[in-house]
Amino acid sequence: MSGTNEQMELGTDIEAQGKGPNYIAYQLTDRNEGEKPFWNRIGAGFMHRDGGGVNLVLNSLPIDGKVTLRACSPSGGDT
To answer: Which of 34, 35, 36, 61 has CA atoms 20 to 30 A from the CA of 13?
Structure first.
């Protein structure tokens, strides 16, 4: 199985268990000077049951290779 299929299945398996992501993955795009960057949601992170790691499921990859992870709020939404 390819890595992409495994990631898609992993995300589906976790969602089917009723567990949402612990982190949201973003790519930040700079705007004009003095303006806040644009936050583009590109995926999600799911904590391992033992708390020792995170599975990162990305829908796209940023050109610069930088990914920002932000913890989800307790209500399950973005922070």
So the answer is: 61
Contact 28, 39 (CB under 8 A): yes
69 beta partners: 25
> If you search the block for the tokens 């973005």, which residue do you land on?
78
Q: How much is the pLDDT for 73?
A: 81
Domain span holding position 44 = 3-71
User: With a cut of 70, which residues of the chain have pLDDT below it?
Assistant: 1-18, 74-79
Tokens of 10: 């992993």
Residue 42 is assigned to a structural domain of this protein:
yes
Burial (Cβ within 10 Å: 0-12, 13-18, ≥19) of residue 57? buried
pLDDT at 57: 97
Distance between CA atoms of residues 12 and 35, nearest Å:
36
User: How far is residue 30's CA from residue 2's CA, in Å, rounded to a whole number?
Assistant: 33
Mean pLDDT of the chain: 80
